[in-house]
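Interim report, section 4.2 (structural modelling).
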Amino acid sequence: MPLVVVLRLGHRVGRDERITTHVGLAARAFGADEIIIAGDRDDAVVESINKVSQQWGGSFKASYTENWVSLVKEWKNNNRAVVHLTMYGLPLQQVIQQLRLEQASRDMLVIVGGPKVRAETYRLADYNVAVTNQPHSEVAALAVFLDWLFAGRELEKIHEGGRMRIIPQPRGKKVVHI
Amino acid sequence: MPLVVVLRLGHRVGRDERITTHVGLAARAFGADEIIIAGDRDDAVVESINKVSQQWGGSFKASYTENWVSLVKEWKNNNRAVVHLTMYGLPLQQVIQQLRLEQASRDMLVIVGGPKVRAETYRLADYNVAVTNQPHSEVAALAVFLDWLFAGRELEKIHEGGRMRIIPQPRGKKVVHI
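Predicted structure of the assembly:
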């Protein structure tokens, strides 16, 4: 299966820890294979995402890149797809069929930024995609994007390994420790 | 049309400003009518969400409640539906048909918490629903929940009024000021 890798731009230490962690955990929960974080180096955030994978299973990995522009260019040189999530882009519902075909045939990089993304990002991306043209949240945009990309099938994903698993309940909490 | 109102529990000043703002903006962008925030009183967060509605249109409203337990009980006494999003609940994809029927026929309160939700919440809710049984983000859970509830139609929603509107572009940014 081709990979879906999330690139989170513009992380700032002392401000974005929780949002970036949520982006990483949403990437994992909604079926992406990996997250790469750019901006300030922040080993604690990378580690906290990887710790969730160790506890809850699956092969999702978080890492940091010093140079995201090179990473995107290399990705393009290798003929892999680059999608940029932005409220200014084309509506998700209009491009989803094309994106599903892309995802079935080649690896896809999904770029999520904050409000101050450089103009370059729009040019580098093969697709600038809006999950609504309203201001909201990179966490929400990524989760809904992945859910559409995988057409809801990611909700059935089993994260193999791990030390904890939830047994769904109509009321209350049931966790098994493996 | 019946209303969909989001109740965000456990807001903490000095820690949750951005996440709660993202929850509120995601609620608005994905078609809910209102958000009510519980926990620490935080007028700045309420105001920043309402300011987005003024700028970008629509009738979405944010407010604060001192006593969310009374609010939920009153909601139930009026025979309105109460849904609690929790990773411990029943999988979204298994209950979505029932929830869509509920939403078509009566107002729905959608409770999102942080990690430390009181046991009472599970008992008060008519439905405890898991958007995956993996740990991720209340922002992601709410957005994907609403997108499923409205079956993607909320992406077409027009937010009437407001002072700004985006004209979707394949590259770059185009905003009209009205």
